[in-house]
Amino acid sequence: MSNESMAMRITDNGPDAERGRECAAAIGELFSGVFAMLDGWRAAVEASGAGTTTARIDSLVYSLVEPELTAADPLVIGAGFIAAPENDTSQALHFAWWLGPLTDNPLLGTTTKPSRLDLASREYAEYLRDFRAFEWYQVPQATRAGHITGPYVDHLCTCDYILTLTAPVGAGGSMRGVVGADILVRRLEPEVLPLLRATDTAIALVSGSGRVILSVSPTLRVGSIVSDASAEDRGWDAVQCPGTELKLLLGEDI
Predict the structure, then answer these.
(1) What is the SS3 assignment for 7?
(2) Given this model, what pLDDT does residue 125 score?
(3) Where are the domains positioned within the chain?
């Protein structure tokens, strides 16, 4: 069953359905705010021109992401711009990417200001040499739209469970790269769990691929995967979070 058809099922299910739609709308609004931020960054990088030097791009991107990373209780833990790889993938990668202040990070320890991602210091980062097949790059390149990747464990930066939101940056009809932001799943908990609990029903937030992001039921644990077919077999309903690939699953036995 498609996400669209599952979302349609919930419209006739009474009070639980209405609470589910309200919850989905609130979650969609939360993520729409992040995508609006990325859209502003995208426009700024595009306006800089394709021939802008690496140093100037870095300076521009840092000026964009630093206020978000250093805000009080920021939603975003990492952000920046990743340039499209050249045809010759032996050339140096250009990641204008910063991490916000960290506490007891396995790689960087405790920091009090943004730290730039240093690929040269990551001996295991060779897999990034050509990242065009990675979901966070490939989907925005194919769709020319924003995308949410994850949740997954970020072994490169945070060593934590995250979602990565990316949006394409274009230049003259070609892909110039992506702007993006990482959000810790545990940072989403105080934003989303109250919304889930307020529905007063068994409910879980899952990714477009069916991986559970947050749940208020032990039946669907964070990180587990639920297929559309499985959800249909169990009689669970689903509703899309507007503007995202995310959806809510609802059911008495969740």
Answers:
(1) helix
(2) 59
(3) 3-29+187-250, 33-185
Q: Is the dihedral of CA 228, 188, 40, 178 positive or negative?
A: negative
Instruction: Pick one of 3.30.450.20, 3.40.50.300, 3.10.690.10, 3.40.50.261 as the CATH number of 33-185.
Output: 3.30.450.20
d(CA 121, CA 177): 22
For 127, the token pair is 């897999």
Which regions of the chain does DSSP assign to beta strands (E)? 78-83, 95-99, 115-116, 147-153, 161-171, 174-184, 203-206, 212-215, 237-240, 247-250
CB count within 10 Å of CB 178 equals 27
- Band of pLDDT at residue 87, cut at 50, 70 and 90: very low
pLDDT at 55 over 60: yes
Contact 105, 158 (CB under 8 A): yes
Does the pTM of the predicted model rise above 0.70?
A: yes
120 or 119, higher pLDDT: 119
Tell me the DSSP string of 34-68. HHHHHHHHHHHHHHT-TT--HHHHHHHHHHHHHHH
pLDDT score at 6: 40
Which amino acid appears at position 146 of this protein? G
Beta-bridged to residue 149, according to DSSP, are: 164
Neighbours of 46 (CB within 10 A): 16
SS3 174: strand
Consecutive H or E run containing 94:
none
Phi, psi of 238 (to 5 degrees): -140, 145
